């Protein structure tokens, strides 16, 4: 029963070419720009979850999962996948600055699914944390950056070799 659709796609691919078949089926399936956003916030925000999710939704980040740190301030990091559009990435950075008191660490995009964003995750250690300055963060927030340029800069900032024995500046 499931063989018939596969056979039809195969026959169309052979007859009209792969790109034509791909375009026909691609039009029917909408592409989600960001598949999931995971956020860890300070415990003080637990009573404001509806407001926070609304803020994320207004930024176009709708599939948001919020957790709360029981003690202390979560790490000021952000990580995103390679296919997150630049405008959504800038919104995620803006919201991370607003709700997590800043962003001082980037996590490499190779660690994440293509359209995934994490804010304030404690799942990563200092072997994959890339400290950044506010000037560097401002460069990532530049609205003139295309998605390709944004991710090129992001990869450049998170591709240096980290010396695990070097002293770390802590946030």
Would you write up a description of this structure?
- This protein has 171 residues and is α/β, with parallel strands linked by helices.
- It contains six helices and six strands; from the N terminus they run H-H-E-H-E-E-H-E-E-E-H-H.
- The chain has a six-stranded mixed sheet with strand order 2-1-5-3-4-6, with helices on one face.
- Strand 1, helix 3 (49-58) and strand 2 form a beta-alpha-beta unit.
- Residues 18-22 have low confidence and may be disordered.
What's the SSE blueprint?
Elements: H1 3-16, H2 18-28, E1 36-42, H3 49-58, E2 64-69, E3 77-80, H4 86-100, E4 105-107, E5 116-119, E6 130-131, H5 134-140, H6 147-157
Parallel strand pairs: 1-2, 1-5, 3-4
Antiparallel strand pairs: 3-5, 4-6
Helix pairs in contact: 1-2
| Overall mean pLDDT | 85
How is the main sheet built? Answer: 6 strands, mixed
Q: Tell me the strand order in the biggest sheet.
A: 2-1-5-3-4-6
What gap, in angstroms, lies between the N and C termini?
A: 58 Å
Order of helices and strands: HHEHEEHEEEHH
Shape: globular
In terms of per-residue confidence, which ranges show pLDDT below 50 for 5 or more consecutive residues? Answer: 18-22
Fraction of residues in helix: 25-40%
Question: What Rg is obtained from the alpha carbons, in whole angstroms?
Answer: 20 Å
Derived structural class: alpha/beta
Give me the count of strands: 6
**Count of individual helical segments:** 6
Identify the quaternary structure here. single chain
Proportion of beta-strand residues: 15-25%
């Amino acid at each position: 029963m499931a063989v018939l659709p596969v056979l039809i796609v195969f026959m169309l691919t052979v007859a009209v070419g792969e790109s034509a078949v791909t375009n026909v089926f691609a039009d029917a399936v909408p592409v989600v720009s960001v598949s999931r956003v995971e956020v860890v916030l300070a415990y003080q925000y637990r009573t404001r979850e509806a407001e926070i999710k609304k803020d994320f939704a207004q930024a176009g980040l709708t599939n948001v999962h919020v957790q709360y740190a029981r003690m202390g301030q979560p790490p000021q990091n952000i990580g995103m996948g390679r296919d997150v559009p630049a405008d959504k990435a800038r919104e995620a950075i803006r919201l991370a600055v607003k709700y997590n008191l800043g962003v001082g660490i980037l996590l490499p995009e190779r660690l994440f699914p293509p359209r995934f964003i994490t804010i304030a995750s404690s799942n990563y250690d200092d072997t994959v944390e890339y400290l950044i300055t506010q000037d560097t963060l401002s460069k990532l927030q530049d609205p003139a950056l295309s998605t390709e340029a944004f991710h090129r800069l992001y990869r450049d900032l998170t591709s240096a070799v980290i010396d695990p024995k070097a002293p770390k500046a802590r946030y």
